[in-house]
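User: quick one, fold this
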Amino acid sequence: QVQLVESGGGLVQPGGSLRLSCAASGSILAIHTMGWYRQAPGKERELVASISSGGSANYADSVKGRFTISRDNAKNTVYLQMITLKPEDTAVYYCHTEVTLVSRATVGHWGQGTQVTVSS
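Assistant:
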C-alpha cells in the first residue's frame, strides 16, 4: 500500500555534506508527519528530524544547526540536508512517514534505510 524509497547515502569525509531523499508512493490519501531516524551499531534507533504537513520541523540536539529537513508535497518527498558531518553521524538512516491511506486508515511506514558513513 505504501512504498518509501530512500536514496542519497554514502561515504563522506568529516566536514562533508550529503542530502538524503525519501519518496513515498502508493494508495495514499494524505501524508502527515515525515521524519528521519538513524541507528548506529550498538545503539537504539533515534529520531533525527521530523517535519509536519505544515512545515514545522524539530531536530535532535546533536544535529541542530547542521541538518535541515524539508519536504516537497507535490513529489511526496522528504529530504534531509546534512552538512558538517561528523564521524558520530555514521548510521543507517531510515525515513518514516505517517500517512492516511485511501482506505482512511492512518499508518506509519518505514523506508528500507540508507547507510551514511563519515570517515577519513
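User: anything notable?
Assistant: The CA atoms of residues 72 and 78 lie 6 Å apart.
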